Amino acid sequence: MADRWIAHVDLDAFFASAEVRRDPALRGRPVIVGGALDGRGVVSSATYEARARGVRSAMPMAEARRRCPDAVFLPGDFAYYRELSAGFRAILRDLSPVVEVASVDEAYLDAGGLPGGGPPLALVTALKHRLRADLGLTASVGLAPNKVLAKIASDLEKPDGAVLVGQGEGARFLAPLAVGRIPGVGPKAQARLAACGIRTIGELAAAPPFVLRDVFGRRGTDVALLARGVDDRSLEPESPARSVGHERTFAEDVADRAVLRAALRDLCDRTAAQLRRGGLGGRIVALKLRHADFRTTGRQRALHTATDAPRTILATVEALLDEALAATGWRRIRLLGVRVAGVGPLAQQLDLFDPTPLRDIRVNAALDQVRERFGDRAVTSCRLLVGGGRR
Question: Residue 373's pLDDT band (boundaries 50, 70, 90)?
């Protein structure tokens, strides 16, 4: 049986990093995001420059101001954060066959059995590259044989870190760490354990069962297993998607149609590749636009037959783009999305006298093989190299 590999991905200081992404002039400065900037709210997120001054999530804003009076204080923009989170999830699903989303800024991935037989570390490298290139964000990643080890590992080298826990090394990896590193072992439990002389996970793993029952009740057995690095929980992906798609949020609002069309081609290529990986096709093609004023518009069109062909998807969304811009008036665009709905198993009916569909199937299959071996950016359209479309 193949070794199991799970990656836990945690975006670094997500809300605060998103604000720095939007305004690069904030880079290197303490930035604090939270509610009620008059001091009555709490901190939602803070850059590492602010954390170095003692600012933490859930800290009262008044305390954050005392500790870091020269910080940039910003209200949360949750529509913007959800937009980036959607891009984050799309990248994860591009790279792994199974994704469990834990929150807006963290997820678990199945890093074993990747397409093309790639090693798990290759996924981590590709993931960090994609997050930087596509979203301008960094993440800390833990790679381990199970969920609890991956979760703990991802928190040890922040920001932008990567920690590997090898097969069979869980107990040794955990032993010197503080008991509070185990998810669910909160301050009260830590205090009770400390009163028993238990401060490290190694000491917790060796504790008598009656001590664990006294501190954790019925959870004592489960905590003991986690302290030994044993965690048999499987990933819990969301329900199978009824649609497949990808979005791109531009670093700056775009007013150049050539750039929009180049981005559309890339989004269509990625959407079609994801469909083909699942043996799927879809009959409804949709376009999503978010304008500079955050107004969102969209259009869709039903096809005569289901497809997984990038050329068909692209031709449809290009027509939808022209219609949308004509109807709404030309505005700068901040987000562009392509989605194929009505998804199901695809059975291709070939025309005996037209070799084009079979040729396209063979070309797309060859391109998929190249991308699986050398990465998503190994092959691209010439159009993406013109007019600023290449990222």
Answer: very low
| Residues facing 303 on adjacent strands | none
Beta strand 243-254 pairing with 31-34: unpaired
Q: Within 13 Å, how many C-alpha atoms sit on residue 159's CB side?
A: 15
Distance CA 18, CA 13 (A): 8
Q: Is 106 a catalytic residue?
A: yes
- Pair 5, 111: CB distance under 8 Å: yes
CB 266 within 8 A of CB 248: yes
pTM for the predicted model, two decimal places: 0.66
Q: Report how far residue 220's alpha carbon sits from residue 212's, in angstroms, rounded to the nearest whole number.
A: 5
Q: Name the percent of the chain lying above pLDDT 70.
A: 84
- Rounded CA-CA distance 377/29 in Å is 33
Among the listed residues 49, 106, 157, 247, the single catalytic one is 106
Q: Which tens digits make up the pLDDT trace of 167-181?
A: 999 999 999 999 999
Q: DSSP per residue over 68-137, as a string?
A: -TTSEEE---HHHHHHHHHHHHHHHHHH-S-EEEEETTEEEEE-SS-GGG--HHHHHHHHHHHIIIIIS-
Are 248 and 336 spatial neighbours (Cβ–Cβ below 8 Å)? yes
For 32-54, give one letter per residue: b (16+ CB within 10 A) or e: bbbeeeeeebbbbbbbbbbbeee
Q: What pLDDT shows up at residue 36?
A: 65
Rounded Cα distance between 31 and 47, Å, is: 5
Distance (Å, rounded) from C-alpha 312 to C-alpha 42? 49
DSSP result, 224-263: HHHHTT---PPP-PPSPPSEEEEEEEEEEEE--HHHHHHH
What is the three-class DSSP state of 166?
coil
**Contacts by 193-200, CB closer than 8 A, 24 or more apart:** 200/175, 200/176
Q: Nearest 10 degrees: CA dihedral of 301, 306, 309, 314? A: 0
Rounded CA-CA distance 49/245 in Å is 36
Predicted confidence (pLDDT) per residue in 312-342, tens digit: 999 999 999 999 888 877 778 989 999 999 8
Residue 31 backbone class (left: φ over 0; alpha: ψ -120 to 50; beta: rest) = beta
